[in-house]
Specification:
The chain is of the alpha+beta class. The chain has 12 helices and 17 strands. Helix 6 crosses helix 7, helix 8 runs antiparallel to helix 10 and helix 9 runs antiparallel to helix 10. The chain is globular.
């Protein structure tokens, strides 16, 4: 963390601020501008171990068949005013970093997993993003406002996803409530419509090799791939829609945008597709690219994650930018949307806290809390720290994989060649989902070849895993 430019220890002044927050928590007083929505059947869906709950959802079928979706976002700004010690620390770090074995939170745990988290069965202040989805997935009317909310059910991706896909029984909280079952089915219907329309507009169907550590007695014993499912898609599509609503709300003021530029290396993507026998247009076209990805996922699912990674690298990283009223929209190439900001994870991303303050100022008719110069500096720092966080997480993922495989030296695995580079030939084991260097037997191999690979060495400190062809 230190080598990547982070200062993960909270300064002493934050302790006094936490004591002041505990002694004087935000007042939860309903009003005409802050409706009391605690009676709604809100629920959250997140990772199995998540405690920093940023969002809750609820939906309602309208008389014309459309679905109204409400997304409640933790009102972090209500607890952490601008330029206070905790805010200054968050502004410097800009993101929580999830290393697999430890979490380095942007906000003190007393807030991010406590007072400002949308934990079940407690009343919380929230910023609600509301929008209407029709059967085709188009968003109609929308609104953003502050409210008082109460999470009625904390649910998890794995359990809800398996139930929505009809591969497992409903989790206990869902099984016990027909109303919650109907609520989640309605949310899933809206999310699937949103996703379908996004893909029709050229959003990219990408699959990455994200893995999570399995811990026992504070030791890494295995790593497993984190699969996408209907529940992860539900939250992903709701968050994309909510961020679009907020971005359009902020068009008349200076704000932060999260963008992915049209690829500068589109010619590389064209060559990548050509090697697979597919001709892409000479000019960047996200719809054509997604059609190619969908086709390859169906034709070669084993190798799709590696193709996805190659495409992601050629598209280039996302970044935060200042957008002023009247500036041309730069958009988000990977999501096929023009209006996109980050507003849905203020417990773990500083850009979202900034956006929350911009929303409140606009709703209250007050001047923006940040100058254009400040917003531009925040955007630059958020981009840099986001890149640094991903580097830390990648390095730790390699180390955890090396630990998980260290007791399996000498075993032989089914593997696929994922890269042939000047640095060597790399292979990925199919189960568990781990990549390493093929130290011997690489001659004549090509990307996509399937082999048997024997594990010969692990180096935990450097995150190295070495195989030889069996």
């Amino acid at each position: 963390m230190l080598a990547a430019g982070f200062e993960p220890n909270f300064p002493p002044a934050t302790q006094q601020q936490l004591a002041d927050i505990a002694a004087h928590p935000p007042q939860l007083t309903p009003s005409a501008k802050v409706p009391d929505l605690r009676n709604l059947l809100w629920s959250s869906i997140d990772n199995d171990t998540s405690k920093d709950l940023d969002q809750i959802e609820v939906a309602e079928r309208l008389p014309n068949g459309d679905i109204k979706v409400l997304i409640g976002i933790a009102d972090v700004d209500a607890f952490v005013p601008k330029d206070t010690p905790i805010d200054q620390h968050a502004a410097r770090e800009t993101t929580s970093v999830y290393t697999g074995v430890s979490i380095f939170p942007m906000l003190p745990n007393a807030l991010s997993t406590g007072a400002s988290s949308l934990l079940p069965d407690v009343d919380r202040p929230a910023v609600v993003t509301e929008f209407v989805v029709n059967a085709s997935g188009a968003i109609g009317s929308s609104n953003v406002y502050r409210a008082i909310v109460r999470n009625k059910a904390q649910l998890t991706y794995n359990a809800v996803g398996a139930w929505l896909e009809a591969t497992a029984a409903a989790p206990p909280k869902v099984a016990a409530s027909p109303d919650l079952q109907a609520q989640l089915k309605l949310q899933d219907e809206a999310a699937q419509a949103l996703k379908k329309l996004r893909y029709e507009h050229g959003a990219l169907n990408i699959d990455t090799n994200e893995v999570n550590a399995i811990m026992l007695n504070a030791q890494v014993i295995d790593v497993v791939k984190q699969p996408k499912n209907r529940a992860t898609e539900l939250i992903e599509d709701f968050m994309i829609a909510a961020n679009g609503v907020v971005a359009r709300l902020l068009l008349k003021v200076s704000s932060l945008r999260r963008i992915v530029k049209t690829p500068a290396h589109w010619d590389g993507i064209v060559r990548l597709a050509s090697a697979q026998g597919v001709t892409l247009p000479a000019q960047a076209d996200s719809k054509a690219l997604n059609d190619f990805l969908v086709q390859r996922k169906a034709a070669d699912p084993d190798h799709f994650a590696d193709l996805s990674l190659a495409v992601i690298k050629l598209i280039g990283p996302g970044e935060y930018v200042l957008e002023r009223p009247g500036d041309p929209e730069q958009g988000h190439f990977g999501l096929a949307v023009q209006d996109y900001t980050h507003s849905t994870a203020p417990n773990r991303r500083f850009a979202d806290v900034v956006t929350q303050r911009l929303i409140k100022a606009l709703l209250d008719g007050k001047p923006g809390p940040y100058s254009d110069t400040e917003l531009a500096a925040i955007a630059t720092n958020c981009t840099a720290k986001g890149d640094a966080a991903r580097k830390v997480e990648r390095e730790m993922s390699k180390r955890m994989s090396a630990i998980a495989m260290s007791h399996r030296v000498g075993e032989t695995f089914d593997a696929i060649v994922t890269g042939v580079t000047p640095k060597g030939t790399f292979v990925r084991v199919m189960q568990p989902h781990i990549e390493g260097l093929l130290a011997q037997g690489a001659q004549g191999l090509h990307v996509g070849d399937k082999i048997r690979a024997k594990l010969t060495r692990t180096d935990v400190q450097r995150g190295f895993i070495d195989f030889v062809k069996a």
